[in-house]
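seq/struct pair 1
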Amino acid sequence: MSDHLIQFYEDDNFPVTGLVDYIGAALASGDKGIVIATAKHLRQLEERLTARGLLGDASRGRYIALDAELMPPLFMADGMPDEARFHHAIGAVIQSAAASHGGHLYVFGEMVAILCGAARCPLRLDKHDAALRVERYFNDLLRRHSFTLLCGYPLSAFPRQEDGPMFGEICALHTEVRPAEGYDPAASIASLQRTIAVLQQQAYSLASEVHDRMRIEQAPREVNFDRLTGLPNRSVFHDRLEMDIKKAHRSRLPLALLFIDLDHFKEINDTLGHDTGDQLLQQVGQRLSAYVRETDTVARIGGDEFTITLGELQNLNTVTHVAQKILGDLTGPFQLGNKVAYISASIGITLYPQDAASAGELLRNADQAMYWSKDIGRNRFTYFTRSMQEAAQARMALSNDLRGAASQGQLRVYYQPIVDMRSGRICKAEALIRWLHPAHGMISPVEFIPIAEHTGLIVAIGDWVFHEALRQATQWRAFEPHFTVAVNISPVQFYRNNGDAHRDWIEHCRGSQTQAAPAPAVGLEITEGLLLTANASVMQQMQAFRDAGIGISLDDFGTGYSSLSYLRKFNLDSLKIDRSFVDNLEHDNANVALCEAIIVMAHKLGLKVIAEGIETRAQHALLREAGCDFAQGYLFGPALPPDDFEALLKAAAADAALSASNWSATNPSTGRGHTS
């Protein structure tokens, strides 16, 4: 709940009398309160709260008082409100209070005191303009933190008729405008000014009512048409598709349904902003409408998904022609204000009556064909086939089975060794999940991980893998004190759990740390896709891992949207050279050069390098000579069940100890401690 309320008052005693009820109710219910007011009003408020028994040890930390007369110098710069300083001075207090203790946070700001209370910090702009700025700063805080804000204004702050527009602008920045409270004739100094101010508030309320009535009148159109693009919405699309099916049945002419999904649209939103994304959707709707007849329907059914129905087709080749034109047109540049964007589209096509007899079946078929287009490379169209339906049904069955796989003990964690290039010792392992299905046997992660990510099951599965890997890694440190296990983490895990599970991971990692091995026993592997879409929440979670000493490795480096800026922006520990660069390395000088360049670049940035997919001694020798730090692949062993991996680790540790002992015996003058 993040509400922004504005309370007007006529009685100058309101900042105390009204606040006693507002803050008192919060404290009485176990919530928290911050008051920004003059020192005089704070003293009066605290006296009354104490009299009610609401201030004391029980409320310690839940009531915060800020002297408004001392605040302007903290967030003003050269007589102007400064947003960065405001967030530092007031935002930090709100952030800390919102995150601590339990209950909701209620904040009151005495606006006139905030802006005009400090004579030593005069304003260089009109106080109303200053108020607008501060209200916008508060709105930004409301988007970041959960709290309810009540801003108090005396009506005498808007005494003139020309204050009306400014009055309206301030009201518009709030989610609720409360009426004037506490009129006291004896306290009235300028009744005429107050009357004008009351009328202005009533005018604003009337304008709001007129606006609401206009929205009610507009509602029937909004029920049927997408507000952003003006195209028919999902409801109208279904109705028209039903009618088109009936017409196609009567005319015995086929009907085509095209399901269009924009490729990489999320990246446009993330990089250029949602307003720019909305402009793009509007232009896409306009381009799609240019390829159909008046009797056809273009609809936006949600997000970046569009549909087109082509009815009474004399020639089915028309469908292919339209799909090709759409693909070609959508790959052209989109001018979005002063920015240019490029996208593509994936299209699924199904036909009536060839593929299905109902609207629901047609939509499902077109959707399946569209996903097939995405799976095979995007920026293409695909006609529905029965095999797609069978594959979709198989995926659904697999998804249903996956929901009970963990609780039924079907999931396993295997461990593939990672060796130190110089010493040859097994110092790390990668945790790899396996699914032993009771009917289908071992199912490849390539099949079930995408399903787990799509359904959100990856969050629970990933949490189980992490704790299992941490338990094993802690146990194996008895043989290799600095041993760590790398756990793959999906981007979905960062977005679906809001960091709750990750905070639990950090707490459990602390238990694996010892004085001899201060680093946690588990590290993380992420993909370049996460770096591309990382928002503030993802950045905070990654920083929390880094602060806890948990190493982060970038997997499959070089195969995605690799960018040096990401390596600098994100505090990584290592990167893994993808196996596609290692394969055939001894016969491909270009791949050797690429691997050498990656290794040099990583070392310059302070990153370690792991090469995966090493299968031959020649590949190992070339990478070792190039300065690679760690190696992984079948040359050193496949992914093994825990017991088998433990036996391998024990044997490797015993061999290393024996070699060290023999070396020490033949070199007695070197002394002790040189055992590696």
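seq/struct pair 2
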Amino acid sequence: MKLMREIERQYGDFSEKMQEFNLFHVMGYVVFWTFLSHGMIIFNKYSFHDDIGYYQFNVGGTYTLGRWALGFCGELEKRIFGGGHNFSLPVINVFWSVFFIGLSCVIIFIIFNFKSKIEEFLITGIAISIPMITGLFGYMFTASYYMLGAFLTCLGCCFWIIKGKRIYKICAIVLMSFSIGIYQANLAFEIAFLITYALFTTINKDLSVKEYLNLLFKVISGVLFSLVLYFVINSLVLKVKGLSMSSYAGLNTVGSISILTYLRRILIAYKSFFVVEIDKTYCMFPFNLHKLYYVSVVIGIGLMLLIILDKYKKNKIWALEIFILMIMFPAAVNSIFIMVPIESIHQLTMYSYIFLFVLFVCELNYIRTNIHMIYVKCISGCAFFILMLFGLTYARYSNVCYSRICFSMEEANSYFNTLVTRIQSVEGYNETIPIVYLNEYSKKSISFYDNSEFSNVITDPYIDSNGLINNYLWKDYMKKWIGFAQEYVPESQIDKNEYRDIRSMSHYPNDGSIKMIDGYLFVKF
């Protein structure tokens, strides 16, 4: 209750704000955009990439990847619900994911003082349908926890920026460090939130130099304290469990990178903000949205310059304060590029981009209130049309991604059913004979349909160029989706000089590509 009163004191009557936009309205927006964008994946079980194997019954990589909080969450879920496993469950995991997105939007709407239902509707739509969420649902086994992390980041930032007792700050640091412990990319989300808040505050309040510096210190210290606590807990957890950090995505090199490397990464962060590479897995603007993005960036910069000019007329220092934060904003949104090598970045790490749209709305609200020009309404109308187009295109793109994986699964099922039939038709076959797959990741068939229509899908994990038949867990796929799990002997354990007959074998699906040789059944792809 004390916290509620503190929020009311700083942000107005909290209960009135809740009634103004109505929590149930926001959740209604969440339901609408969820069904529009992700209806296919809610009521279908698509199993591909990591979801095929062990992670289908777990929450993903945890302690060795520095995701200690994710490990805690997975263990807690099993203790509460039982069953001995976590499960990749579409309806349940999508429900919790979008529920946490909705709560995150509520916090954002209050902190950034959104003024109309259309703003809330459009930003909720982007937060739900943005390609990061589509990609995340490809890792359904862990999706709800990742969005719990995003919500905890929003809640932690809210606690951190309000004035009050020290206990609020402690809670904020714990929440933000826990969110990083779920997924390290939440640090980039935190940075983007706090920098956007600093920019929003500077735009809407006339801060003295001291107040401005205190605001910057609050932002920087919040990030540093949460990061330090994350590393402390991570070290303790690894020590207690007798584990060490994996080299995955350079996680074991954090803190040992040279200053020059970080400077290069900062330049990459700025470049990636202003130059959209539409063929990269971290691109957030598929189809023609990269063109719309450039338009929105130009409009956003124009709006910010109008705001700076308005402030400049009143006080040059106020204008300079906004300008400094405006320069910092692209690096904040793209801070993941500073944290890790660019080759390790994909759309799952890019949820911070929603603050590009949040700032866009904040700018519109300021000019509508403070800058009385004849073309302001026209600009606002165009801007809201752009936001709507982003949401609708993102929703359409999500459906394209799900259509692709549906197509791929049907194709894989057909391929593997035929393969199993061919294997079981070999003379002398029985279920106890071990199988050796030669060139197992070179499977191909000219009878496959050329699905080049999906070539512009850039969201991981929907972009597997080899398809499901060459996925690194393809044998697990055959076991779980086709029901074929015969004993398998790795090709590396076979002395090919001893089995010279395999050299004359043709390649599957041609005749002679499956042979019984000295107690082994060889399949050559």
